[in-house]
Amino acid sequence: MITPANVSFGCDPEAFFTKGGKVVGSEKVLPEKGILAPPLKYSLAHTGVVLDGVQFELHTLPSGSPVGVGRELAAAFKLLKQHLLSLPDIEVCFIPTVTVEREELATLSERARVLGCAPSLNLYGIPSIAVDGADYPQRSAGGHVQLGLNAPIFSPYDTDCDNREDLVALMDLLVGNTCVLLDRDPLASARRKNYGRPGEYRLPRHGLEYRTLSNFWIAAQPLTCFVFEMSHLAVSILSTALTQKNKIDEQLMSRVNPKKIVSAIMENDLQLAQENFTTVRDFINEVKPGPGMGLTAETLPAFDRFVEGVQEKGLQHFFPEDPVEHWCRPDEHKGWGTFLAGVK
To answer: Do the Cβ atoms of 166 and 237 come closer than 8 Å?
Structure first.
């Protein structure tokens, strides 16, 4: 049995601004310090929208639930929408990979042309960015997952308590590989030559930043909840294994070839990702994780129908609304379970 782990969730997904259909640097749209909501009492952190090279980035405060992540994203999107009222010729572009015209790159500051604000680590030793951002016109929008972790996985106060690399491997199988089934961006494999490779992560003081996903999951709240619920499943498996010393994580990971996980993510290989997911399906049917962990034995058939629908019609068939408008709607958004129950 998997015991739900105590974990907090945050994110910093990216997107682009366009003018007349062409990408423009975020420094031409946002103030230097971004647009930020007032910090909470006793906190210096902000929800808001900030510069991140050519892209802009949505910052959220940590939340104790995937639905809470959605509330934070909604707050950031509302700030953005309000700011753009004074810039009617600027639009938001959620395409994960874009080409910036060289003339536009030349007008941006040196800081905006840099690729990557800080180096990433990689579980498999895959090299980091190897191109010069000043000359390289392609840019990608990441959908990085932030996880606030506790013992027995990680404690900043105990140097012997750090099992985050084991968590990265689980995240690749449960989150990275599974999202290949949904994120069918034709430029995904090209994006991963420089961004979002399998096993890509950072080690912030709060826990783990998983950097493999694109921004596809900010299209709508159900997708956001799905990504963070599957992340919760990964954390809970490792936490259960370490607490109960039952090696449930090894039981899962020993069933799949790590090279196949890497290849499925790196090449956005649907067939290979489906093969890897068979392992995940069997595991879920055996251990029967509870609600709030992405998929259960009962919801797997509906997930299969959803994946088939994505292959046939695309994600936009299920989520046709403009993301800014979606997140700024005052009514309550559907969570993952509610959405999946309606997939026929």
So the answer is: no
210 neighbors 172 (Cβ within 8 angstroms): no
The answer for residues whose C-beta is within 8 angstroms of residue 168's C-beta and 6 or more apart is 123, 199, 201, 208, 210
Q: Which amino acid does the sequence have at 336?
A: W
What's residue 130's pLDDT? 63
The domains of the chain are located at 8-341
> DSSP assignment of 14-53, as one string?
EEEEEETTEEE-GGGTS-TT-EEPPPPTT-----EEEEET
Report the DSSP beta bridge partners of residue 97: 140
Give the mean model confidence (pLDDT) for residues 114-142: 82
| φ/ψ of residue 202, rounded to 5 | -130, 165
Q: What is the pTM of this model?
A: 0.96
30 phi-psi bin (left φ>0, alpha ψ -120 to 50, beta other): beta
CATH 3.30.420 fits 8-341, yes or no: no
Query: Do 219 and 96 meet the contact criterion of CB atoms below 8 Å apart?
Result: no
CA-wise closest residue to 145 among 339, 50, 9, 304: 9
What are 210's two structure tokens? Answer: 């998983």
Residues linked to residue 17 through DSSP beta bridges, in sequence order: 24, 92
The CB-side HSE value for 225 (13 A sphere, CA atoms) comes to: 21
The answer, yes or no, to whether residue 331 has pLDDT greater than 90, is: no
Q: What tokens does 298 get?
A: 């009962």
**Residue type (1 letter), 84:** L
The residue type of 342 is G
Buried b / exposed e over 278-294, threshold 16 CB at 10 Å, is: ebbbebbeebebeebbb
Angle between helices 66-84 and 221-244 (to 10 degrees): 140
